Amino acid sequence: MIEALxxxxxxxxxxxxxxxxxxxxxxxxxxxxxxxxxDAIEFFLAGVLQISVAFLLLRPLEALRPIExxxxxxxxxxxxxxSLLDRLGIIPLFVFALLAPLFLTIDGxxxxxxxxxxxxxxLFPGLETRPLASFLVYLVVLDFAEYWRHRxxxxxxxxxxxxxxxxxxxxMTLWTDSRNHLLDDLIGGAxxxxxxxxxGVPPGHFVGLLIAVKTVENLAHVNAxxxxxxxxxxxxxxxxxxxxxxxxxxxxxxxxxxxxNFAVLFPVWDQLFKTQYRGHELxxxxxxxxxxxxxxxxxxxxxxxxxxxxxMVAALAARRTAPTGATEDHA
Length: 331
Fold this sequence. Notes:
- The protein has 331 residues and is mainly α.
- The chain has 13 helices and no strands.
- The chain is globular and about 55 Å long.
- It starts with a helix and ends in a 10-residue tail after the last helix.
């Protein structure tokens, strides 16, 4: 079934390239960009699937069992814009355009020195004949890496200044997942690509892994009273679990000084590295203080991007002038 779905996806991708995208590129003398266009269509189709699943399955939950009801939802609209830019491939293509020269250089260097990055199938040959098991193993490895990327974005002051935009939203919904600074997306894209290169993620798995991660992230931010049950919430990040990560007031204690519940998919990483908080309440979301002005919760897209840059510059300047041995505190 998985192979049939992949074939259907590739078929639609090829049809869009042949009938819609390639003719104008050839007419404009841009034949060298056809391969990049093919990749862009892949991002676009994956985004259409992600948005469709999120809207058709999660938006009704928000309407039927909301945690909070807001008379004015204007603050949510900017998150919808972020989601469209992200899921339909505009931001990923921006990230790709910036990172592609670097990774092409790395790939060329590796090939020149006859270095082929190993795949997990090289270590575990049995995965070659078990595509579902292979997919799940890569998902666990990438999620482990994403846990540390997310945790580090709360640890370094300059990075937190960018990532804090994601946390300023006080009307958290399924759309909030894509509310990120462009530089934060660039770092996240580079991180994901490097890890995928190191572990050798097969091209056929890449889109599926991306859809799986993004869909669960949408679910984790949903404004709905949704429980996975006592056992289920140990296996997968739920809206309740992730809401504590966005809590207006973090749990007390030094263990949560920089936040809690950093896991993207699997809560086991928080449990292993002592950053887990299993509160049963559904706290309000947002930031009461931090590197960004209070207005960032209501700012538009470009204003938030400017505020993030200003906060990052301020954090770097403060670090340079801080006394030796001083530590940052941005919980």
